[in-house]
Amino acid sequence: MSNDATTAGTGEDATRRYYDSGDVDAFYDAVWGGEDIHTGIYAHAREPIADASRRTVERLAARLEDHLSPGRSVLDLGSGYGGTARYLAGTFGCRVVALNLSAAQNERHHRANVDRGLDGLIEVVTGSFHDIPHADGQFDAVCSLEAFCHSDDRNRVLSEAARVLKPGGALAFTDIMAAEDTPPDTIRPAVSRLGVDALATPAFYRGRLTELGLADVEFDDLTDQLTTHYARLTEETTSRATELRGIISPAYVDRLLENLPLWVDATRDRRLRWGILSGTRRP
To answer: How far apart are CA 21 and CA 43, in angstroms?
Structure first.
């Protein structure tokens, strides 16, 4: 991963274009449910994707629970449609700053907050997690769900996340990662849809978090869920292809039908990893 600001900026441009795309937005809304757009934790192989995705939010929140209460502040990096922010604010009464690159997603996020009476607890900010627009030590907790995989400079992302944590504050995030022994070229055809050439590994994240001064660094390995998730996405997209071509460009649907099986193969071959990483900033 590069530390070059230009590289990070290029990656951000690709991410912004991806999430501002009408096709991508319609796909996430129709297949994922438009609330939580990340890998799910499945109770069974046929569970709705939206239900499994919400369970991931709940499990991540459990890692932060001691830091979530009225008067506490949380930063959600790469907040998407705001499902995580609304869950945290609505369940725990904490204040949430939701930082996200996509202006289109942020507009939808804010509207949903207003509709649910949570706009007083959630501030939606358009910006980059490579340069978080907040002071050092401002947040009781920082979280993210599958946003860091879009970064070309994950060293910088983690440094920024640690910087804005209060002493004693907690960090928890999920990400799609490469297995430690996976050559980048073997997963590049799948991950190219994310706008990056390579993924981080669990060892990279654990090592970097420790270097940044976080204690109790843990990796809750949920890789088996990744296989179920991409099998469900492939199944849903395939079975609903005709319907989806009516709301998404047929060319985009065709690309999904080509790309999603690559993810299924990569997960079944154990070339990818997924789970929750967490740690606490030392007082």
So the answer is: 31
What is the spatial order of strands in the sheet that 139-145 belongs to? 122-126, 95-100, 73-77, 139-145, 165-178, 272-281, 214-221
User: DSSP letter at 80?
Assistant: T
Q: Which helix (H) or strand (E) holds 1?
A: none
pTM for this predicted structure: 0.91
Task: Provide the pairing of β-strand 214-221 with 139-145.
Answer: unpaired
First-last CA distance in the chain: 29
Pairing mode, strands 73-77 and 139-145: parallel
In the numeric block, the tokens 């060319």 are attached to: 251
* Residue 132 pLDDT greater than 70, yes or no: yes
CA distance 31 to 20: 17
Rounded to an integer, what distance in angstroms lies between the CA atom of residue 110 and that of residue 116? 10
Question: Among 108, 114, 52, 107, which Cα is nearest to 89's?
Answer: 114
pLDDT tens digit string along 164-196?
A: 999 999 999 999 999 999 999 999 999 887 878
Residues paired with 214 in a beta bridge: 281
